[in-house]
Amino acid sequence: MPVTHIQKNPEALTLTVTSDFAVPVRRLWDAYADPRQLEKFWGPPTYPATFTRHDLSPGGRSEYRMTGPNGEHAGGYWEFLSVEEGRFFEVIDGFADEQGRPNDQLPAGRMTFSFEETATGSRLTMVQHFHSPEDMETLLEMGQAEGIEAALGQADAVLADLRSFASGREVEIQILSDTQVRASRIIRGSVEQVWQAHHDPELLRRWLLGPDGWVMTEATAAQQTGETYRYAWEPGVGVEGEPFALTGELKEIQPPHREVSTETMEGVDGPPTLNEQTLTPVEGGTLLTVVITYADAQMRDMILGTGMAEGMEASYARLEAEVLG
């Protein structure tokens, strides 16, 4: 078991959990930066977690739900107060309702995560700071210490799995719920480079093309909240297909880590999707994550069936080759 020490300090109102791992600090950090990995060990074995948002950056936020053996859900969130890449982050850690909103009926507290190198690998020190003796008693009676220990007991297997989360892999699509999917890929470039490639019209025309042979005829990017964007394509010479365009409104932007926008295909009836894109630095480049929310499962499955993953992969591979070198 990686947990080596648990200390409950009623005077200081803290719970400290120390864990040691036989991997470099960077590998351990990336397991917390990547929601695909984090959700494999954040919840206890009988309550696995699903992260529907994970922004490991100052001012960012994470939202997750843990699903019990009978399908019951327990929600949680992190609000990131500070982040020092590869070394430390601090969050407000709390419970959430079914809509992801803070559950004020249960205590929230401050939690710090410190990563350091050791002679045999790396060490993680987690410290939960409680607001009051009553909050500490409530959460410990709910089994917080035992839950953390059980959850971290799964981390070694995740850390040993290098191939599943390494750079060079194609776009991975995961179904999160009836209405949400997550697309993930590591792009070989810095966060700033990948962000710029998504907002510079000239760069967009070089890589955001989908399958080979298509031409981007318009790249009007949105740069500020409330602005609209429009991207249009047409088939090149000898390529079959009909011209089409995507448009939407920029709802939220936090350069260079996160942006949220709606998306609609022109001429197609139906509600827009909501696309939440996050860029996170990891070993090998930038982890690009897009959580897409659809109106219903039917719409989700219809769009997945169009070859969305293949089109995304072709574009991201072109981004690496032609824009980032």
TrEMBL record:
<dbReference type="InterPro" id="IPR013538">
    <property type="entry name" value="ASHA1/2-like_C"/>
</dbReference>
<feature type="domain" description="Activator of Hsp90 ATPase homologue 1/2-like C-terminal">
    <location>
        <begin position="190"/>
        <end position="322"/>
    </location>
</feature>
<comment type="similarity">
    <text>Belongs to the AHA1 family.</text>
</comment>
<dbReference type="Pfam" id="PF08327">
    <property type="entry name" value="AHSA1"/>
</dbReference>
<dbReference type="InterPro" id="IPR023393">
    <property type="entry name" value="START-like_dom_sf"/>
</dbReference>
<feature type="domain" description="Activator of Hsp90 ATPase homologue 1/2-like C-terminal">
    <location>
        <begin position="23"/>
        <end position="158"/>
    </location>
</feature>
<protein>
    <recommendedName>
        <fullName>Activator of Hsp90 ATPase homologue 1/2-like C-terminal domain-containing protein</fullName>
    </recommendedName>
</protein>
<feature type="region of interest" description="Disordered">
    <location>
        <begin position="257"/>
        <end position="279"/>
    </location>
</feature>
